Amino acid sequence: MDRPSYEFEYSLPQAVYLFKIEGKNGRVGKRVQFDLIQDNMFNLGFGDWKEDECGFDDLVITNNGDMEKVLSTVIAIAVKFLSLNCGASLYLTGSTAARTRLYRIIISNNYHAISREHAVWGYWRGEWCTYEKNVDYEAFLVSELL
Fold first, then answer.
1. Least enclosed by CB within 10 Å: which of 19, 35, 69, 92?
2. 14 has pLDDT over 80
3. Which domain covers residue 63, as residue numbers?
4. In 55-138, which ranges are E strands?
5. Does residue 2 form part of some domain?
6. Residue 4 lies in a domain
7. Backbone angles phi, psi at 34, to 5 degrees
8. Number of domains observed in the structure of the chain
């Protein structure tokens, strides 16, 4: 997916990806982190951060007028993470139902490009299924095709 994105950096010792956005409400720091859930499966966490804090807020609505560019950056970071962590899978779910729906829309709208290099599953009714458009999944799992 070749869409405009923000530049990001990998930051130690927290092992997170950081980037700053610029929009109608000013400059805001964003943080993406990957937490191991189980056997090479990582939860992708994302939200606003402040330089003097270790965590992030995944419930805030920044409303800075650059949502597509922010999401493109998160996707670029996820792709980078998967390329650096052979065999890893990313677990994705929103902090709210609306944000999970947004993930579904993004995956659906870009599925053709995503599926060329990544396998995608959806969690629905208690089990993982091969991803299909227009299914109201509770969560998603993405990994590189081997």
1. 35
2. no
3. 9-144
4. 89-92, 118-124, 127-130
5. no
6. no
7. -120, 115
8. 1
